[in-house]
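Reposting from the mailing list since nobody answered there.

I have sequence plus structure tokens for a pair of proteins and want to know whether others read the tokens the same way I do. The first protein:
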Amino acid sequence: MAFPIPDHLPRRPNPKDVSSEILLKIDKATNQTLSAELAASWLTELDGTIQNTKQQIHHRIHRDLPLFEQQFETSKSVQTRLQALSTNVENLDRTLSDPEAGIIPALVRSLTAHAVLAQQATNAAVQHEAVLYLLRCRKSFTGVLSLVQLGKLPEAVVACDEFEQEHLQFVPPHLSQTSVFADLKRKFQAAKSKTEEQLSEAYSRSIVILAQTLTVLRSVVVRQSDNVLSLSDVLSSLTPTARANHLTILRRDMVAYYVDQLLLQPATLSSSSEHDEQRLTVIPSPPNTNNPIERLENVSLALKFLSKHFTAYLPLSDKASVSRALCKPIGSSILSNLLIPSLPVAFHGLPAFLQLAERAVAFEGECIVQLLGGDEHDRPIKIWIDNLSGHYERRRRMLILDNARLVVLAPEVVGDHGKFVVEVDPFLQEKKAALPDIIPVQKEMIGFEQKEDVDEWGFDEGTGNGDGDDGWGFDDDSAPEPIPQSEPREMVVSGDDDNWGFDDEPVGPPDPNGDKDDGEDAWGWNDEESSGDTAWEDDPWNETTEKSIDDPPSPPKSAATTLASPVPARKATRLEKLANKGKKHLNGSSPLASPTPPITVNPNPVPESLKPPVKRPPELTSPLVAVAPKESYLVTHRTKQIVAIVKEVLAEGQHFTVSRMIPIRHGSGSEPGALILQSAASVVDLYRALYPVQFSGRLKTVVDAPMQLSNDCMYLSEEIRRLERTLVGPPNVKEKLVDCGDRLKVWGDSWFQDTIDQHRASIDETIAKGAEGFTFLADQDRYDDCEAAIGRAVQEIKRLSQRWKGILTKTKYYTAVGLVTDAALSRLLEDVLALPDITEVESHRLHEIFRMLSGLEALFIEDANQQPFAADYVPSWFKFSYLTELMDASMVDIVDLFESGALRDFEVDELAREEKRYKMWEPDRYVSKPMSRTYNNVIVFGPTGTVGGLVALEAHQRGAKVWLAMRDTSKPIDGITSTVEQAGNFVRVQADLSDPASVSSAITQSGATAAYLYLVHTPDFARATLRAMRDAGVEYIVFLSSYTIRLEGVPLREIKPDRGIAYANAQAEINIEEAGFPYFTTLRPARFASNYRKFWFDGAKALHVFPDSVMDNIAPEDIGAVGGAVLVNRPSEEKETIYLYGPELRTAKESWEVIKNITGREIDIAPLTAQHYTQVLLTKGLPNAAIQYLLALDRVNVGFPQQEYQDAVGNVEKYAGRQPTKFSDYIQAHKAEWLA
């Protein structure tokens, strides 16, 4: 498409040739300018131009005419020669390519005829060679076939080998694919297979192995022929593959019939020979014939028979290998079928077994090493015999534990038939301190058999002593009936060197030191006559106080057996002090025993210097003390059986160690008998592991079952300690027994305390739900509900006292009942003191409710003439008693009490105000309760988190009972395996930190006073949850915070919300401080090493923006170790802030390179943009504010101040007692998670 050329573009210059000029003029002409004249002018101009050109050519030629003529002649000569050359080329082509006479066609025809002739000659030569080769093959094959038909099998085998080498190995190529050669090969293979088949058949007839007979023929006739083959010819003629198969079957049958069977069953072997036949016959012996050595001799005879009559005929190449192949199966069979089953289950069987062991070692040397050519350095039987001591001890350990398992899992005997009484001296420790040089007479425990027909507390009506004593056994001022010497009393009493008195000293006349058999009941003190029943109507025994006519006369009391009354105590100065009087230890050996019956307990408290329940009266601490009052408790016969097993195990281990019957192998790692001795501790561990699982239902449903288990544990603990003191053995065994005893004691105390806590919680819940705070008591329906709730609580406490009274010692009984009673009183006091105001009607009705609980005082009366001692075991009894009086007292009564000194700490106008009158009774929550730096009952919130599970595991390893507070209690815990959790002291409890009610319930259920928690994202930063924890009894908090805070006090409260993580953790710490917890530890770790895989990794891409940002990479295991350590052992009396940093500083890029090198994964560690980083972490669940805060930290993170960093790294070793984990070590330990 034409378009106008812009004017500014340069124009091409006009051409100088003639035609261009004419054409340019023609082009410029238009329809308007074109005319005949113009065309004529163009023609004229063109003619002129042509003429001018001709003239120029003419002038040019004539200007150098000679040169022109020369060139013209040259051109004509070239044209002539070109024409001649073309003619010659055409003639040459005709001579070469002419089809008739041409040279090339004639040559092709001659070569073709020659090729045909050569092919014919070649075909004839090949055909001749093939015929000759086939003739040779036919001749050789005919020879092979004739040998096979004649039964000359060895020669046939040789001929077959020669035929294959000469005729089948190098076959002419033109013959290999022919049908005639294929037919020849087929017939040859058939002949060869027939040869091998006949040889195998001959072998099968040469040696026959059956269960009863072993037959070997030295020669055999070939089937369908008259030729006879020798055994050596048959064996040598078999192909290697067939011979190997036959020998494998032979080895299998020999091991099965003539090794295993001979070792398992008694038999007699006989050998016979007839012509060429050798026969070994097995004659079974009677089943009652059991001589293991004879069985070894039978195997030896069978092996020698085989070696002489069969192995000797094997080819040399197979003889050694066949014999050696039998060595390992024979050795294994002797171990598994003879030695191990014959290993004795008791010590008396060892001498006979040692003879068998000696013969087995000799057998291995004679038959396996020498006869069969086994390796001298590989002798499994000798190695096993050298370790015989360990094998025997492991066998005994297995049998011992199986026996113990049967005892532990045996059904529980219902009632008192499966129990016996154990006596304990509650003042034993004080007696030791007061009488260091006096040795009391011990009562012997005959064969660990205690008297079983004595009831739980010694209240058998109509027993040998004829006492008709009351429920506590105080009508025994007359002497008991003497115990015959022929039937020593099987009662366990306290001794001089333990709390149980099993010193196994013979029963004899009392020593002059005054310890004589007083024949008292299970608790009774033969000090003073007691009459009348107990003061409460639900007496579980209801025994009469009349004396039996068979009672012998009572001897006069001596001054040495009389308990003096303590000096009267002064009045209390504060009700808070009264509430804390009389607290008792919970174990049976506590010096806080129940009060002595003749002592009159004054309701007023006693000074610290007296404390009647704590210290003995002066008479009992004098050197004239002869008999201390004893307490008794029930123990199951299952426990006695376990003690008997432990005792037998220790005796057996000592006997085994002393006997030195089994030689000690040089370099052995343990002494003989050590494993048996260690089984004693394993028996106890088995009991602790199986009993709570087997009888879990009974422990939950039967009221007295947990207390009975606590008694059994305490009895076992003391028995184990007694056995440990008498044991002469390795130190590690004694250490294990000591540890077992300690664990049993802790376990028994735990069952005792947990049972009390469970019933305390039940009583508290009964009153809390039924009474609903004792509000609106003026309404009759509400009063009836409260009265019914209190009635249920009282009945439950009485029911518990009836069930526990026949099981526990007096001290434990009163302690348990007192604590349960205290739970009811505490709930009542707490709810009543929380009432804002009380009307007169409500005050009177509260007084009636208080009087219902006052009836529980009858539980703490042993004699009608004795004052109740409830205040000694119920901490809040004094407070409850005064408040009971004040509920129905007038102002004049209150003033009288105040003026008499009972309420000297209160002003009249304070007591006159209702609100003051009640709230002034409430003691400070923490002042009245002693604090401890060590906590053995802790609760961990969030154990399924990265750190929570590790904190719980560390706390458990430090001896604490750990409650695992979880939203979903069925969720697995990564930090604690199921095996560790089941074996350890862990309890799962449902709780959600965002739900204060569930947290309060979990704290109440656990009874824990120390708690570990993490940051929970609630609108109030867990303020309500923390208050619920404080109100439920938590006094110490360990909080997982963040290093981003780095502030305390006022600056902590000035952190702005835009600081994200720092602000959230700061608010949580502030809430903990303001909640009023006395003790608080905050953990402020830096960057978790686990975050690389959890948050900063996206399949194959590293998620980071700033590669030069410095990281410390602290391992969560280090955080958990420090958290668990400070949770159990509080580090200070005030807020403790612990920074935790990793031991190595690396950039983000260096950290990812370490991960790549250790894991071997291909990871793209190129940095991301901030926008991409944010998008990825949002998909992982991180809030945008947290992500932006992390970006801001990484942007400026160039490290830590040197002193701060060194202190934070050292905190791991300071609190956890171990070196911090390096980042590379952490990645190596978690390599499998990266590769998953």
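The second protein, same order (residues first, tokens after):
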Amino acid sequence: MAEWKKLNPAQLEAVEKIYGPLLVLAGPGTGKTQLLSARVAEILQKTDVDARNILCLTFTESGAQNMRERLRNLIGDSAYDVTISTYHSFGSDIIKNYSEYFQNIATERSDDLRMERPIDELTQIQIVESIINALPFDSLLLSARYYVRHVVSTISDLKQHLISPDKLRKLANNNLDQIDKAQKLIDDIVNSAGGISNKKADKLAQYQSLLNGLSDLKGNLIELATAKLSEAWDKASEVNSPSPLRAWKDEWMPKDENDHFTLTDPDRSRKMLELANVYESYEQELRKRAAYDFDDMILRAIDGLKNNKELLFNLQERYQFILLDEFQDTNPSQFELVKRIADHEVHEGKPNIMAVGDDDQAIFAFQGANVGNMKDFLNAFNDVHVINLTENYRSHRDILHVARNISEQIEDRLHSKLDDKIDKILTASSANLPDNASIERQEFGAEASEYSWIADKINQLIKSGTKPSEIAVLAPRHKILENLVPFLRNIEIPLSYEKRENILEAEIVKGMRLNALLLEALIDNDTAKINEYFPLVLSLPYWQIEPLHIWSINWEMARQKDATNWPELALKNPKLKNAVNFYLMLSASAVTDPLELTLDKLAGTIPVENASGCHYAPLKEYYFAPDKRAENPLKYYEAISHLSVIRAHLRDHQASSEKQLSLQDFLNFFEMYESADTPLINSHPIAQSIHAVQLMTAYKAKGLEFDHVFIAQAHDDIWGSGSRGGSNKLSLPPNLQQIRYVNTSDDERRRLFFVAITRARHGLYISSHTTKDNGKVNLPLKYLNESGGKSAVLPEANQTINSVDLNPQNLAKDIETLWQAGQIFLPADFRALLANRLKTYQMSPTHLNTFIDMERAGPESFLVQTLLKFPQAPSPSGEYGTAIHNTLEWYQNSLNSGSKPKLNEVLKRYDIELDRRYLSKTDRDQARGKGQASLQKYLDSRTDMFKNPAKTEVNFYSEGVALGDARLSGKIDRLEIDDKSKTVRIADYKTGKPLKKWGSDMKSLKYAQQLYMYKILVEHSHTWRDYKVESARLEFVEPDNHATGSVLQPLYLDFNDQEEAKLKTLIQAVWTLIQSLDFPDISSYDKSAKGVKAFIDYLSKSET
């Protein structure tokens, strides 16, 4: 096979050694992605296992997608049978696919133990804050109410490291016992002598006595203190100075309230006892709510494997070969999940598992990653074989020279601890690089000068023929990159970077908040606030009201001493009347409407209605009309993105809530983020071209490579030991500190710098500036080992530090450019902005129907609602339908697991589902009665159907369905599969008015198109590609005459090859238009079924 010919001996060994545990140390550019795919192919070729018996785990969805695509190119459609997943998705899938092991089938909410509701960060903070506020007045943790977010973060750290409340409680009690044991020793040696002696000989004798005495005591806290003291003793002997011993004392022997030395601060362990109680109460509250947090997706899966041998054996039997990518980035809970699946007794401690990673690239400790897992892998299994990949196919030998000089400064390296010593020196093995690398070290006087040089150098590279997309500027912080933007913009260099901003400060979001404040004041009839907020709201740009009209009311209010009502005066002004009436009408409905409905009305998505007609807010038209997109694509894109993020967070918050969110909850949402001192960050791409210079953090650049890499601001406080991350105010005892990322390790920073350097193929440019804006001097990055104007880590020919002083005129110009950072609006290419979405986009039946729906703006509606995800509240009928669908899914799954729920259980289940939907009280009450009556009649009439097993809510996202270039997906309500005859029957549940027969109306057209596309999904899927769709039908859940009628028989669709061929042509035509962002003008078509058919004919002809 051609792929095997590309492998070097070490890679080939890793591919062919498929049995037993294997750890592959894969340095940057050594071809690990190729290795992973080739190994899967080798397993399938050399063993009798199926692709479904292979499990591949990685860290990002994009990583999983890339792995599957590469594997598909190697082994074909069997790639879709291999489980390729992120760790969290895999844990979630275990719970979902084996739900019978994770639930008590219960219908009462208080008894519902299933993990059904993800909890958002804001709700986590609310729960923990309420627990802390209930602590007694003398609690050591009561002050934590001022830093609740830090407590939440610590609970997450504990979960990731598999420390339960009971384990934490035990650790804290053991610590206090050990502190008591050590106290007598410290009293005898130190406190009785009045402290540590100032005389060197006596001082050394005290430390020696402490070391000897502590060595005789037991307990992991004491043992850790002893080990650290022993290290300090050896260091003191080496440097002939007691300074290391003094540093140990400062860390390990603080003074208590009696001015006595003690072993560690006992209050830290006492706080852990109280934290254990808070943690336990938090877990109890989650169970009460049937909720889970992000870490629970892994932990609950582990619990399921612990407590259910049948589940464990099923998964162990299924996954006989396991591959772990980026293993250095795993945390202990993720590794524990893997170990349990791998540890089948038949393997005798030698499972078929391969972990690929590089401890030198372990840069995600802030996300809970534990590089120690690589060492633990060696101890977790027997006879672990280690393979070291050192042939680098990316970088020039001079780039690797720099990388080596950085990596050798890393103190904690795995290969140095192995019994069989190995060499991790990378060798340049690419034949496609220039003879000479371009390596420069530049230093400037001012920050602005550094940015100016970077921009000019990039411009030179582009003019000399380098593609802009092959140039990257890397930094550890986004702010550094954003400061470079105006310099590149001024010389018209296309750029791409990920913009991060607190959207609570964005204009459109602040405007929505101001609207909500006005509505709240109107609802409360708070005249003072009404008078304050009305002029502010009507001054928002989208109302396009001249300030003179607003000020005239303010002046009138000031002149008329008895005038107290601003809107009353404003209603007399024709320019203000409509806007004022809009808010007065909306305040009446906002009292009972679900929050999302009110937000839709404020956004102008739906109107406020009264006897005089429909009244729309102008926000949507002002920001999101098609001409606005053409005028400023970036502003258009960002505004939709901000609203989408706000709405997504509100929905997460709603999912965690026991009640329907209200306008007050929306305002509280802002206040909670502010009181928690937590920004609401929206990260989104800014792309001026598909071929643009890449500005990104070194973290984001992991796994990527470029011809030329610029490393900006090579200072100690940016890349080195002077840099500081956010600290957690909840201090941990020393034997628990390993669970928390504190950003204080030089090794962590050296690894990040190593990652940045190794992104470069043959161009590396390291720059810095000597003076901060405040006049202070920047300390040089010590990892570069610079002195005498040279950088010793660089190749000899490139070691000179080029100090550049620009003339005052140029410096003034550069400083002015730097001031523009954060304020400049970039012209952007709309296709480039959507490039990532288009790359991963899959078309569903709903998307296709939206695209051709003339009544609802067709292609434009698809772009705004589907592709850009403009937020909009779900309709009451849609929410009612979802509650019915979820209930029927639950009912069928219960039957599949051998338990038949009684009717009253089904109806209670429906009530639970309904209470979780976005409905007003009126709509919910109507839906409750209608749904219960419908379900009762439907289940009674379809008894025979439910006797047969069926798959429910089948998701085709990972099935690799393709029709030409078009990638398809969708969910089918019900599949009835006959494996013997290899046939499939499709059923689609429908609520609303039943369709008695197929016609030429719009509803018939959409329903038929949907069923045809379901047929295509099934027959083109990997799982059922050899099956034939025997039939497809609509299942109408509601009676034909409301509650009094009877349930209609299913409506079957007779498939026609010619119609199916037409639909396939249409799908490919629409796909082409979507990918090119070419949306046809539909103004000439009737807004009817006739117009839709004419539009479909036009699209189909354009494809042929």
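Reply #1 (J.P.):
I read it the same way you do. The chain has 43 helices and 30 strands.
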